[in-house]
Design a protein that fits this description.
The structure holds 2 protein chains of 2 kinds. By secondary structure, chain A is an alpha/beta fold. Chain A contains 20 helices and 6 strands. Chain B is an alpha/beta fold. The chains are: A alpha/beta, B alpha/beta.
Chain lengths: ~450, ~325
């Protein structure tokens, strides 16, 4: 049973449930107390010790059901003798075939129809064949073959062919039954390997894909594969949540440990100079405010979806954030993001103003006319765009005002730096008015930069 | 198990912890209808002497679980509400600064007399050292919830409510208390619990808790209950309610939870609603009655506006659910 617990914990880890050694000790202690008898009790107890969040509980339940699923094998029973008619000739015995046939464990199990013994044999063979080491779905057929070899299926095949050559009907009957049994075993082995794959490999495959996605360029040719879209959105949401967890709660913490001498002395007057009330200096930290301005024009079309997804997630987790989107004109999108689910909100924004000719000057002017009062010295402004303005006036004067009024201006550009001043890009002209300008075209970069931004430029 | 032994002295219902089923019954006896998963987690927590971290949306009975456990075991409940900015001095102990100062003022003359006949500065210093410690001793110590819990010799139930609202620094500070059931006060040394308290931490998931804290705790997530369980809870909390009303009411609330509301009603809202309806002498639900009392289960204006036009329809669904 020890071995099975270890395997189960490994399966949990593969399913992205973090299990530390200390927790696995807890789990063993729990099992020692309650035993393996009651399946539901075992499940609940292990769940309490091993799964540590709502998500993990869900994954735990799935892994548990999968791991401890033991479907009974279905052996074909020998057909009953036809009624009334002639009794079928008695089946040949294994001993009649050959001596080694009589020694074949698997053959005996098949003939006895003993499913418990078969599942035990399969567990043993699986350990020898290291089936649980499976990592990729392409390994499935090879591992199934190895598992069958370990179980001694080759032997069965030999016995079958020998039995067919035996004199009399009995040999064939035996061969038929072994043949049927062999099929059951083969199907079972396939299912077994499939389950092992689900347990140990499916999740790690997903993790691998997530990692690749996080590094994939958002403005790559053809954009992101629609198949990956959902996973990407989930990734972005996770990332925004992580950032918000770390930074949204650091505000208004008072500084402690410094005596406010002036106020302490003032208060002590009431007690004849004895400082009964000691006053400590406190410092109220401002709440951060973020204004995010996102380009959704044609030139950043591929990246726009993800920048918007990111805006959406950030909007959900940061209390004070104003989001704007533009291509020709600029509009506030907070309301849209608040009212709809992520997919619909993005579509809505793109439908309203997406994929038109970019005009940075025009957009900045819209911002200056309608929303300039939102800027104050607590505000961090984040631009997400490629600064390709189609040779229109970039309105540097407005950019300067924004720079002067806000706490900091950050520009995230999906293009690499070497492209920044080529063609109609005015990035280099905006640069003097940015506190930070960076290339950002993968999720990984986006997360790292936003984290820097929050740490450095947002007061906390 | 020390806890069991202690509990046996304290109350006859200690048998409740003999098995999970007994625990379910014991909790039901003090008015808490627990699912098996809840009872198992509590059972493991007591027997493995581990704190238990309870998560779930507001009003599913996280705090109630701690209260009921305390009642069941006949142990005192010590509750610590967490908030942003909570620190050691509010959670563990504080020196009674005012009292210290007052005593020094009162004893000033007495101390002067003591020191008057000292030959030279060194000796006066020496005597002062002897007195110094008396101002940092038990009588001047203000114990806060954690310290109180550690000093309950017969054990107690410690409820650390809404731990997710506290700062990360405080969470780190809790680790020593939770893993070793001890805390250190520099002036007094290490204070260790004679009987480890049964610790509940609750969280509403305002932020993710640190892995170190989670690792030290058992985890229990209380979901919103299924209809049958919720009916039993209502019946146990509101004893003189008609069965037909319970049926309709729970069905209605369950239907509400299917909707896309800003705040879905949880168990506490269901129970409040049931009580409100009893006060109004209702023996079954009708659309007018529901509209009048909708503000008991829904806490946002938008939600109420959204649900109001659909009340009759929801009631029909509620009738047909098993």
């Amino acid at each position: 049973m020890q071995h099975q617990m270890e395997d189960f914990i490994r399966a949990l880890r593969a399913a992205d449930v973090k299990v530390s050694p200390a927790e696995s000790i807890d789990a063993h202690e729990a099992v020692a107390r309650i035993g393996y008898g009651d399946r539901e009790l075992l499940k609940d107890a292990l769940c309490a010790t091993l799964a540590k969040s709502e998500d993990e509980v869900r994954r735990f339940d799935r892994a548990f059901d999968n791991f401890f699923a033991r479907d009974p094998f279905d052996f074909a029973t020998p057909p009953p003798p036809p009624e009334g008619g002639e009794a079928a000739p008695p089946e040949a015995k294994l001993e009649d075939v050959s001596e080694e046939a009589a020694g074949s464990e698997l053959a005996q199990i098949i003939l006895a129809g003993d499913s418990t013994a078969l599942s035990q044999a399969m567990e043993r063979a699986a350990q020898a064949a290291q089936v649980s080491e499976i990592r990729l779905s392409t390994q499935k057929s090879r591992l199934t073959r190895r598992l069958l070899d370990e179980m001694g299926v080759a032997e069965i095949e030999k016995i079958i062919s020998q039995a067919r050559r035996l004199e009399g009907e009995g040999g064939n009957a035996l061969a038929d039954r072994l043949e049927a049994g062999r099929k059951v075993v083969a199907a079972e082995a396939q299912r077994y390997v499939q389950r092992q794959h689900d347990l140990y490999a499916a999740e790690s495959g997903r993790q691998l894909r997530e990692e690749l996605l996080a590094r994939k360029a958002l403005n790559a040719e053809g954009g992101i594969d629609p198949v990956d879209l959902q996973m990407m959105q989930a990734l972005v949401r996770k990332m925004a949540k992580r950032l918000a967890d770390r930074y949204s709660r650091r505000r208004n913490r008072a500084r402690k440990g410094h005596l406010d001498v002036r106020r302490t002395l003032r208060q002590s007057m009431a007690y004849g100079g004895v400082p009964f009330n000691v006053v400590w200096k406190t410092e109220r930290v401002d709440k951060p405010k973020i204004i995010a301005i996102c380009d959704v024009s044609k030139s950043v079309a591929a990246a726009a979806q993800f920048l918007l997804t990111f805006l959406y997630s950030l909007n959900e987790v940061v209390d004070r954030m104003d989001a704007y989107a533009f291509s020709g004109r600029m509009i506030p999108v907070n309301q849209i993001l608040d009212e709809h689910g992520v997919d619909k909100a993005i579509l809505e924004v793109l439908k309203l103003i997406g994929f038109q000719q970019t005009d940075y000057g025009r957009a900045l002017q819209d911002f200056a006319e309608n929303h300039l009062d939102k800027l104050d010295r607590h505000t961090t402004v984040i631009f997400l765009g490629d600064a390709r303005s189609n040779y229109a006036d970039p309105r540097l004067d407005i950019m300067r005002t924004i720079h002067e009024r806000s706490r900091s201006v950050i520009w995230l550009n999906p293009e690499p730096e070497s492209y920044w001043n080529q063609g109609d890009s005015v990035m280099n002209r905006y640069l003097p008015f940015c506190h930070l300008a960076k290339t950002c075209n993968t999720l990984d970069q986006l997360e790292r930069i936003i984290e820097d931004v929050l740490r450095q430029y947002v007061p906390h | 198990m020390t806890i069991l032994a202690q509990a046996a002295n304290a109350s006859p219902s200690a048998d409740s912890f003999a098995s999970v089923d007994a625990l379910v019954q014991g909790l039901a006896g003090v008015g808490y209808i627990a699912s098996r998963r809840i009872a198992t987690a509590l059972y493991m927590s007591v027997h493995l002497q581990k704190p238990i971290l309870v998560e779930g949306v507001a009003g599913v009975g996280k705090t109630e679980l701690a209260l009921s456990t305390a009642t069941l075991l006949g142990l005192p409940l010590i509750r610590m509400q967490c908030y942003e900015g909570l620190d050691e001095s509010k959670a563990l102990y504080e020196w009674k600064y005012g009292k210290q100062l007052l005593y020094t003022q009162i004893l000033k003359d007495r101390m002067g007399a003591e020191l008057a006949d000292a030959a030279g500065m060194d000796e006066a210093m020496e005597r002062l050292h002897g007195m110094g410690d008396m101002f940092f001793s038990e009588p001047f110590l203000e114990p806060r919830p954690l310290m109180k819990a550690l000093r309950e010799d017969d054990g107690c139930v410690l409820l650390i409510d809404e731990i997710d609202k506290s700062d990360e620094a405080f969470e780190a500070f809790l680790l020593e208390v939770l893993s070793a059931y001890q805390a250190s006060v520099p002036e007094l040394g290490v204070i260790k619990a004679k009987t480890p308290p049964i610790v509940f931490l609750t969280s509403n998931n305002v932020r993710d808790l640190g892995d170190a804290l989670k690792r030290r705790c058992l985890h229990l997530h209380i979901p919103l209950p299924e209809a049958s369980l919720e009916r039993r809870i209502v019946a146990s909390r509101v004893p003189n309610i008609e069965e037909r009303l319970t049926h309709q009411l729970v069905g209605f609330v369950q239907a509400l939870r299917e909707m896309d509301l800003r705040k879905s009603p949880s168990i506490s809202e269901t129970v409040d609603w049931a009580r409100a309806l009893i006060l109004m002498h209702a023996d079954s639900l009708d659309a007018a009655m529901v509209r009048d009392t909708l503000n008991v289960i829904l806490k946002y204006e938008q939600d109420i506006q959204m649900v109001e036009p659909q009340v009759s329809e929801l009631l029909r669904t509620a009738q047909t659910t098993p």
